[in-house]
Write a structure and sequence with these properties.
Rossmann fold, 12-stranded mixed sheet, about 20% strand
Length: about 475
């Protein structure tokens, strides 16, 4: 629990600054967006919040009020994974009210449509670009652009406090923190900070109710070691190879002894079986990005006119799921879109959905102890797994939950949508719920939006799945 103790010792001076500086944070109400026909049928706000002492790190956010009863419905702060993937991922690919129309690119601006299964129908959601260098968030200094898991969590907590101070009407709303993928390394730390702040009597007194995570990174011992047994269960590798590797590697597939030749050979054989598998969803085709020269030449003038000489997005194969990435990059780099979102001019030269070149150090090895601590405090939690994800397999998630040694209060059973099995669930003591999403991938709502909306709506209203 040493790491957990460290994070509880929040810099008191920094908290005092957050509570009493009363920063003037500008935000903008948006009535319409390029690519969407007509006025937006929901309330959208964007803005920036400085999240470090010097305020040279500016987090950009999208806030959407609940389409139900925003004064009473829960408020959720949503973190996207990566690290370095923009909040637009959650907003348009997963749980937000918009999605891109999947039509072949013809040189015009990609268009948007409503998502009938948006989680904003029952909750107000803040989608934040974090850490610095993600989406439209930026740093005015090189030092501010350097981030670790620790600083990411500190800044995420600071963002929430400042946002609520500037939106005091939401302070009393039931509060949840959510995210997926790598956010599993950040969200539990932030939730513990909130919990400790409440116990210490920090103002504003937040109405924390719980947190939720989808296919979360938690601990490589569980997450990555589970990939080999997952491949075996999914008939990607044969029994003989799995048994041999399990024996030669002793169940450890990430930190192997270089002198263990048999283990290395077995893992190489497994790699040959899995190299053409699409890890985010093993049943979908693996679609590499491509840059057909004729397509680039055909659209080069269009791209230069809108984004400048340096911008040349990766062209994706139409018909593949990752074509969405291409459409998203075209849309978010459009100058009229950035003006409509009130993006500060000159802060981001080229927008990318996932920035893989952050100055980021992963300094938290495991968040299992945070889950244990939060459970001991009775904090509600929903952990869900798309069951066809090989990036963060459900097997690893189930193993770290098992390591908490919690009592089972609701035995393994199916949960239904439209009288069909949407997945399986199990309930644990102190309000921890685990669920699989049948047919879901790494970001389950992207693959099973209807089912995931039903899951979220039931859980957030404290009804059984």
């Amino acid at each position: 629990m040493a790491a957990a103790s460290y994070f509880r010792c929040v810099c008191f001076h920094f908290i005092l600054q957050l509570l009493f500086s009363k920063p003037a944070v500008p935000f903008s109400s948006i009535k319409s967006l390029p690519g969407f026909s007509g006025s937006l049928p929901f309330k959208l706000e964007t803005g920036y919040i400085g999240v470090n002492e010097k305020e040279d790190v500016q987090f950009f956010y999208y806030f959407i009020e609940s389409e139900g009863n925003p004064r009473e419905d829960p408020l959720m702060l949503w973190f996207t994974g990566g690290p370095g993937c923009s909040a637009i991922s959650g907003l348009t690919f997963e749980i937000g009210p918009l999605h891109f129309n999947m039509v072949k690119y013809n040189g015009s601006l990609p268009t948007l449509a409503l998502n009938p299964y948006s989680w904003t129908k029952v909750a107000s959601i803040i989608f934040v670009d974090s850490p610095a260098g993600t989406g439209f968030s930026y740093s005015r200094s090189f030092q501010g652009s350097k981030t670790t898991d620790t600083t990411h969590a500190n800044q995420g907590y600071g963002f929430l406090i400042k946002w609520l101070l500037n939106h005091p009407s939401f302070i009393a709303n039931p509060l949840y923190i959510g995210g997926d993928s790598y956010s599993g390394m950040i969200v539990p730390i932030i939730v513990q900070k909130i919990s400790d702040g409440i116990e210490a009597g920090y103002e504003p007194l937040l109405n924390l109710k719980g947190y939720l995570l989808g296919n979360p990174a938690t601990d490589p011992k569980f997450d990555f070691n589970s990939k080999v047994p997952f491949a075996h269960r999914m008939a990607i590798i044969p029994d003989e190879l799995y048994k041999r590797a399990k024996r030669s590697c002793k169940g450890e597939y990430i930190e192997i002894d270089p002198s263990n030749i048999q283990c290395s050979n077995d893992l190489q054989a497994i790699s040959k079986c899995t190299e053409r598998i699409n890890n985010p969803h093993i049943l979908e085709p693996k679609c590499p990005s491509n840059r057909p020269l004729n397509k680039i030449a055909e659209n080069r003038r269009y791209l230069i006119e809108r984004y400048g000489e340096s911008y040349e997005p990766e062209f994706r194969r139409f018909g593949c799921r990752n074509y969405n990435d291409f459409l998203c990059n075209i849309w978010a780099n459009n100058k009229s879109v950035q003006r409509a979102l009130y993006v500060r001019k000159g802060t981001v030269s080229v927008w990318t959905r996932c920035n893989m070149h952050l100055h980021y150090q992963k300094d938290v090895e495991s968040t299992v102890s945070y889950h244990f601590y939060l459970n001991s405090k009775g904090c509600r939690a929903l952990i869900y797994s798309g069951d066809h994800d090989m990036n963060m397999p459900y097997l690893g998630t189930q193993l770290w939950i098992k390591s908490l040694n919690l009592s089972i209060v609701d035995e393994w059973r199916p949960w239904l949508v439209d009288l069909q099995v949407a997945g399986f669930t199990r309930g644990y003591s102190n309000h921890l719920t685990y669920a699989t999403v049948k047919g879901g991938g790494h970001t389950a709502p992207e693959y099973r939006p209807k089912e995931c909306y039903a899951m979220f709506k039931r859980w957030i209203s404290q009804a059984p799945l």
